[in-house]
Amino acid sequence: MPRRSTRSRSRGRAEPVASPKTPKTPKSTKKAVPAKPEMQFKDGDEVMARWPGSSLFFKAKISFVREDDDEYDVEYENGTVYTIKAKDVYKQQSVILKKASRGRSKSRGRSPARVKVTKKVASPDQTDSAQPEEKEEKEEKEQAKVEKVEKSKVERGLKAETPTRASARIAAKAISEGFSDDETEKIKLAPNPELPDARGKKKGWSFEWVWALLFMLMGPAILVSLHTLCQSGCKIGVPALSTDYKTYLDRDSFILLFSFNLLLDVLSFVPIGAIVNGRRMNGFLTLMSLLAVVPVLVHYKVPLGIVKKKYFTLMTSSIILSTLSSIVAYIMSRWSAKSNLNPKGNTGNPLVDLFNGREMNPRFFGLDLKLQTLRFSMIALAVLNVVLVTDNIVSSGFKVSPTLILAASFQIMYALDAMFFEEYFFQSHDAMNSGLGLSLISSYSFFPFLPTLTTTYLVNNVVVLPWYYLVAIGLMNALGYVIFRSSETQRCEFAKNPNNPKLAHLETLTTAGNKKLVVSGWWGLVRHPNYLGEILISWSWVLPAVGSLGLNALVPYYLPVMTTLMLVVRTHQINQRNKRKYGAAWNSYSEKVKSNIIPLVY
Fold first, then answer.
1. How far, in Å, CA of 90 to CA of 198, rounded?
2. How far apart are CA 153 and CA 163, in angstroms?
3. Which of 103, 137, 201, 287 is least crowded, fewest Cβ atoms below 10 Å from its Cβ?
């Protein structure tokens, strides 16, 4: 979320006066701790707030006060919530938004009120005896002087004095000019057509809860439909959903999934690995340890076939567990510190808050719950593939399918990479800008059961491809991985420390906010090279099964198709956000780098 501002202190505010120096006493060496600034507004106050990335002010309401950061969460009239610096929030003046009266006022006291600013006011007797025509003529002569004197008073730091019966236009001008003295243009209260619905209209009934409820139901419905279709060959059609609840509820599957989740929580306390942001980075060692257990299970003839047998109910159990986890997170957020609340999940509507998550970075007994959702997603993806492939090899008399091995290895490598570089999770959008709600939890919980659609299909169907096809698919995956990992590492390391000596070879472009944009390397080829890598990787997962899938069994294509579409949409959103955030610097970068994802294509 952009938090930039070009506004300095307001006119009329007194400069801080330095306190007289006092002789130091040898007994005390402690420095005086400056008192925290007192916040001017409280929850529910109606204010005028700057729209981030612009010089426009709009009506808004304080939804949350962040005293420690000297910031406010404000909700604009179009329902948008942003975190704004306290210096960009002012007391709402209703007269600012009023239109200037076009007709001349017939008030008898109007002309003296105007004259009062520039010269001595006439006596009441003289005012009463003045004719309306003379007052109108005097108004026209004094208007230019009034505006000039009012402006000079504000520039000297005096409070702008609004004439008692002055027109609304002059009153609005006097107040608006008193906001700031560092801008070449006056504060604009007119709408910006590029901003969404920022026209000062009254906020109507919010239907955000409808969208939240729709997505809550749509996610599980899609996942269940895909796996139902793949139980009968993965062909496109209307899924024959069972009405028997026992089809979806299985106690053993739920216990197995819950125990797996609990095991990951326990292993996160193992004192191995570096500490980053107060969290122990041992996800990679946890994953390697669990994979090493699989041969032991085979040696002791533990039935690994339970995963294949209960694969569908394991998936439905993940839906149930993610829903329960989001409800628990919603309840726990009631005791969270106000500074840790998510503005988008603190609306007061239970459905919206449950979906978006009320808490930004919840911790439970030292566990980072966001990081644990990532670990569950990646480790479960790798373990599912290893167990399914191992069981297939053992049950087939140790016959190995190169196509199955290749498809599963792509997914396992992806999970290993995510855990090896898990500290970069703190530089992701989910870690920095999303609350721990059903939206985040379900996306991570459902993910392991989407790529494994291809794995289960290849387990149930023997697919034989020529070796050169397999080599070509492997090269495609390797290229995608190199692009993704190289660009993502550059992005995360640069975000952590722009002055990192290891990144000194990269060219940068300085923005108006004194921030830097990387304009060389992979980021000099396309604007979003990490998205290009992800698209290549996701398509390489399904290509081993293409020879058998053909144009009929299209269900396994769901993940790469949706990944491509979502990244294209996200590319457009990020471009618009960066344009507002970086302004001319982003335009210069866009002129240099024309393509978004695919060079010379898009």
1. 18
2. 14
3. 103
Amino acid at 127: T
Q: Strand order of the sheet with strand 71-76? A: 81-85, 71-76, 57-66, 46-50, 89-91
pLDDT digits (tens, 9 = 90+) for 145-202: 545 545 444 444 434 343 344 444 433 333 333 333 333 333 333 344 334 443 333 3
Q: Tokens 């980053």 belong to which residue?
A: 276
**Residue 474 — left, alpha, or beta (φ > 0 → left; ψ -120 to 50 → alpha)?**
alpha
In the chain, the amino acid numbered 99 is K
d(CA 410, CA 182): 56
Those residues with Cβ within 8 angstroms of residue 109's Cβ, 6 or more apart along the chain or in another chain: 127, 164, 165
Q: 95-100 long-range CB contacts below 8 Å, 24 or more apart?
A: 95/168, 95/171, 95/172, 95/175, 96/48, 96/172, 96/175, 96/176, 96/189, 97/59, 97/189, 97/200, 98/168, 98/172, 99/168, 100/167, 100/168, 100/169, 100/172
Query: What's the CA gap between 329 and 239, in Å, rounded?
Result: 33
- Residue linked to tokens 């090493």: 292
Query: Which residues are registered as beta bridge partners of 46?
Result: 61
Domain borders along the chain are 1-7+39-101+167-204, 248-463, 465-602
| Closest listed residue to residue 383, CA positions, set 331, 469, 449, 317 | 449
Distances (CA, A) of 95 to 10, 172, 174, 279, 470: 19, 6, 11, 52, 71
Task: Supply the pLDDT for residue 344.
Answer: 85
pLDDT tens per residue, range 242-299? 888 888 999 999 999 999 999 999 999 989 888 888 888 999 999 999 999 999 999 9
Q: Evaluate the CA torsion angle 491, 492, 494, 495 in order and state its sign.
A: positive
R_g of the chain, CA atoms, integer Å: 32
How many other β-carbons are positioned within 10 Å of the β-carbon of residue 38? 6
Contact between 101 and 169 (Cβ < 8 Å): yes
Q: Quote the tokens at residue 312.
A: 């569908």
Nearest CA to 405 out of 474, 468, 472 is that of: 474
CATH topology of domain 1-7+39-101+167-204: SH3 type barrels. (2.30.30)
Ranges of residues in the chain with a pLDDT under 50 are 1-31, 33, 94-133, 135, 146, 149, 151-205
For residues 563 and 580, what is the distance between their CA atoms, to the nearest angstrom? 26
From CA 60, how far away is CA 286, in angstroms rounded? 48
The neighbour count for residue 534, using CB atoms within 10 Å, is 23
The strand pairing partners of 48, in sequence order, are 59, 90
Residues facing 276 on adjacent strands: 279
User: b vs e for 397-423, b when ≥16 Cβ sit within 10 Å of the residue's Cβ?
Assistant: eeeebebbbbbbebbbebbbbbbbbbb
Give pTM, 2 decimals: 0.67
Q: How many residues does the chain have?
A: 602
Give residue 600's identity as a one-letter amino acid code: L
